[in-house]
Specification:
- The chain is an alpha/beta fold.
- It folds into two domains: 137 residues, Rossmann fold; 217 residues, Rossmann fold (3-Layer(aba) Sandwich), CATH 3.40.50.
- It has 13 helices and eleven strands.
- A six-stranded parallel sheet has the order 8-7-6-9-10-11. It has a five-stranded mixed sheet with strand order 1-2-3-4-5, sandwiched between helices.
- The protein is elongated.
- The structure holds uridine-5'-diphosphate-xylopyranose (UDX).
Amino acid sequence: MLRSAVKKKRIEFTTDIGRIRDGQTTFVTVGTPSNEDGSINLSFVKKATEDIGASIRNSEGYHLVVVKSTVVPGTTSRVVRPILESSSGRPCGDQLGLCSNPEFLAEGAAIKGTLRPDKIVIGAEDDESRNTLAKLYKRIYKGKKVATITTNPTTAETIKYASNSFLATRVSTINTIADICQRVPSADIETVSKAVGLDPRIGPLYLKAGPGYGGSCFHKDLQALIAFGQSIGYDPILLSAVEEVNQRQANEVVRMSQNLLGSLNDRRIAVLGLAFKKDTDDIREAASIRVIDQLLKNGASVSAYDPMATENARKVLPEQVSFATELGGCVKGTDCCIVMTEWDEFRKLSPRDLRTMNAQNIVDARRILDRSKFQGFNYVAVGLGSAKP
Ligand code: UDX
């Protein structure tokens, strides 16, 4: 899609910030990383706003600025607006529009999320800003019905954090139940999730137990909301618990391998999958990093394999980790393999693929293997009750 758009000259890229003047609407999509204490770092948003304001300062005509970056409630009105007004030399409402318009794209599904969004959220400072952005989306989605929520910027910003808080809470809730199942012989989280998800009040999505959530958003956004809450005199302890459960889920995975092997000292462990989810090379906040860190601390040696994420992982994991270019090389001579990412390649694993292992131990942290194929293996899995809790 990108190649064809470039070819048709429907998109171009420039480092010349002054080109903003040629357009009528500017979207701010810069990153909002965490400060050391977890609070949001708005320096890129501030800089972008200043640059936009400066470049439209001497231009004529209406210009709409849209904040798409994830920012804590109140940022667009209380931080972006004053910077924009002073750098552009015009007040909002007078030839200058301002909206918050959060995005809800998930990695690996960005095109689907863009073409068929479940909603558009427009948080506008005034009527003209709202109408201008609504018209733009109407042109993009002509003929398609897309639910559009129009509100003020602060509520729009809150919607984004509420979404990620809910999703992360669901994952930590199901992982909590999985950790209980784990300790009760014959309880199985997969059947629990399936049944629970049939309740229309709950629904089936984000109920897959695993090694804990990763990615660039959930952890960062929850930390930002916790810090923001605290800064306004409210400690959102539920969200802190969601984060703590998520951190601890890595210990569960390591504990399962300890149950199989006893001490991990001098044991060789194969980690299958490094990416925080399949179909991406992204290892930011990936559970694999937390698990590998603990395996190494317990004296194990680790070989890792991922179809896409190896290069990125190499940059952040300690030198002791060896990286294999294919699955066979990764499992060879190991005492246990841990499935950390739900890649389709791993879903199809058979005992033949693992024949060169030194011992037949599997930890399925994603619940993707067909257990019936692995007779003769010691198979343990997240949320699958075992005789030895
Ligand atoms: C997320 C939100 O989905 C998206 O709306 C927001 O804009 C950005 O953050 P993303 O980080 O790309 O998107 O990943 P997502 O698919 O939501 O998964 C996040 C993590 O949760 C992954 O590590 C995934 O493996 C884990 N997860 C998800 C589970 O462990 N169980 C589930 O049932 C669902």
